[in-house]
Amino acid sequence: MGPYYSEPEKRSGGLPSQKRSGDLPSNNFSSLSFLYKSRSNSFQTPNQRITSFSLPQIPIPQQTMSRGCFPTFLLLSVLTIIIALTTATPSNNFIKSSCSTTQYPTLCVQSLSVYASTIQQDPHQLVQTALSVSLNSTQSTKAFVTKCNKFRGLKPREYAALHDCAEEISDSVDRLSKSLKELKLCEVKGEDFRWHISNVETWVSSALTDESTCGDGFAGNALNGKIKNAIRARMVNVAQVTSNALSLINQYAEKHY
């Protein structure tokens, strides 16, 4: 995956309602100039003699300095994260090597590198993390599609496309959830492993089909505008993440057969 700032100092923009004897007009430099010209060029203080007069320097508000420092701090934080993610470590090298066999290797590395400390070099943990990322992305997209389906003023074709997509994405969530539970049983060996991993492969493949079907529903003219583009973009991302997870699962299964 912030700093809070104090409220800015309030400044009075007008003159005081009442003036006491000896007060100087606020923000009136001409009056100040006249006053000091009319007097001697020097005057005595308890500790020293000041031979020239200059207006005091206005201090810079603390909030202004904080705002100036915050972008720099944020930039340094982002650079630190990027360097940490791209640093060649055994865990990151393992993820990159595993993702190289997927259809979308760049997305694969981006989505899994943030979990490098958890994955380490464990093939089972890698597959489980990839499947969890796919499930989370699909659940988020399901919520978005469901919200869009409740918009008022939808045309019949628009409503039908959203309704069908909501059903497909809901089925995908169910299958990915079952796959994740089944995967936890794949730490066994022999025939039991083959049975469980086969179920995982079947369910993830079906989930990918559901996601692709939903995305295809927005390929034509059933929907136009921002909703169509937003849903299609989300579905493409979900399908790619799930495709990567399936590739890693197949790779994991082949090494254990």
From TrEMBL:
Pfam families: PMEI
A GO molecular function held by the record: pectinesterase inhibitor activity
SUPFAM superfamilies (alphabetical): Plant invertase/pectin methylesterase inhibitor (SSF101148)
SMART domains cross-referenced by the UniProt entry: PMEI
Keywords: Membrane, Signal, Transmembrane, Transmembrane helix
UniProt keyword annotation of Transmembrane present: yes
Parts of the chain that traverse the membrane: 68-88
Lineage: superkingdom: Eukaryota
Gene3D superfamilies linked: Invertase/pectin methylesterase inhibitor family protein
CDD domains associated with the record: PMEI-like_3
Domain Pectinesterase inhibitor: 90-248
Residue numbers spanned by region Disordered: 1-26
Family (UniProt): Belongs to the PMEI family.
The name this protein goes by in its record: Pectinesterase inhibitor domain-containing protein
Organism: Crotalaria pallida (Smooth rattlebox)
